[in-house]
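Example S7 (structure tokens).
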């Protein structure tokens, strides 16, 4: 055993380099495919951990460095359950899959069983990638990739903290409670997935609502998001803002659009703007002098970079300046005091009509 551990210590920097590169490769592939990931993590097994595994009772290895599958481990933690299969398809496309462990899946449990859920793949580089110069030194290395959701990961972490690795580890008096909790995690995973599907359906319905120009449609996040992406009047206002000097920033991620959209919806509710008709009435005002007055004085230097959602918030503040205060913007929106003061003073000097 000592010779194996010594050999592994010498190879460890190469294994660590392979682990780092493999995790980055997987992250890049997932990003290109548009699969949102909560996080990825990786590790090369430590010499101490390898020694412990070799020493376990009932284990016998003739060639541990080639027989132990998880000297390199990658974990991919996803938001949604149905993305697990998509990631599995990508792994099969991008790597040579030596083994696929699916015994820890819902379909493998009896109706009255709950527990650890995850999919494990034992992989190595496919021949095309293994022959590339940057991978040649590690072309024969294997790695284990675990794919699970955030909630499955949480369950695994909590179970590990409780030192319950197997059902037999759980005292009989506590098993029912533990199974009930596992069932709640499983149910929550399914409900989050359904919420995403429902959100997609609402977005599709909102497109139809805006397309039909339904003046009485209620203003919620999907409707307002669709409205500002298609409204000719709003596009005219954004163009005039660009001419003044505003710069509209590109969203770095899908979630970025929610930063100010949620704030805008809350302000609509507070101010009594409830329908598309109300929003059209707001945009009919003349914001030219107000917007020109708040650009450079606010930033002090260079253009003011804004998103379309934040631009809409500026219009709301301009039209309803009497209903805002510096203190309110500081407290509710985290505004810098000087910026809040400049915007409100400009709105009061140049009341949009």
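Recovered sequence:
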């Amino acid at each position: 055993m000592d010779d194996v551990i010594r050999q592994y210590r010498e190879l460890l920097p190469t294994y660590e380099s392979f682990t780092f590169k493999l995790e980055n490769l997987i992250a890049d592939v997932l990003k290109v495919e548009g699969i949102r990931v909560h996080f990825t993590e990786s590790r090369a097994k430590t010499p101490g951990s390898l020694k412990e595994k070799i020493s376990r009772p009932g284990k016998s290895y003739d060639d541990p460095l080639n027989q132990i599958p998880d000297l390199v481990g990658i974990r991919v933690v996803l938001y949604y359950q149905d993305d697990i299969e998509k990631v599995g398809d990508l792994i099969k496309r991008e790597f040579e899959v030596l083994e696929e462990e699916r015994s820890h899946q819902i379909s493998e449990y009896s109706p009255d069983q709950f527990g650890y859920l995850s999919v494990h793949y034992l992989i190595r580089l496919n021949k095309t990638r293994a022959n590339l110069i940057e991978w040649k030194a590690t072309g024969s290395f294997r790695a284990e990739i675990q794919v699970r959701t955030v909630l499955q990961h949480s369950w695994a972490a909590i179970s590990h903290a409780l030192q319950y690795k197997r059902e037999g580890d759980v005292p009989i008096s506590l098993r029912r409670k533990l199974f009930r909790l596992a069932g709640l995690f499983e149910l929550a995973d399914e409900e989050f997935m359904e919420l995403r599907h429902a959100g997609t359906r609402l977005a599709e319905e909102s497109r139809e609502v805006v397309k039909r120009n339904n003046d009485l449609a209620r203003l919620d996040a999907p409707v307002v998001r669709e409205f500002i992406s298609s409204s000719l009047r709003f596009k005219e206002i954004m163009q005039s803002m660009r001419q003044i000097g505003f710069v509209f920033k590109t969203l770095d991620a899908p979630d970025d659009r929610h930063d100010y959209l949620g704030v805008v919806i809350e302000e609509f509710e507070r101010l009594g703007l409830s329908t598309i008709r109300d929003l059209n009435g707001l945009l009919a005002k003349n914001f030219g002098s107000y917007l020109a007055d708040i650009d450079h004085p606010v930033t002090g230097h260079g253009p003011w970079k804004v998103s379309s959602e934040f631009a809409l918030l500026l219009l709301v503040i301009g039209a309803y300046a009497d209903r805002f205060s510096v203190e309110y913007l500081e407290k509710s929106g985290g505004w810098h005091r000087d910026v809040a003061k400049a915007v409100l003073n400009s709105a009061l000097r140049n009341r949009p009509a």
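Notes on this example. DSSP finds 15 helices and seven strands in the chain.
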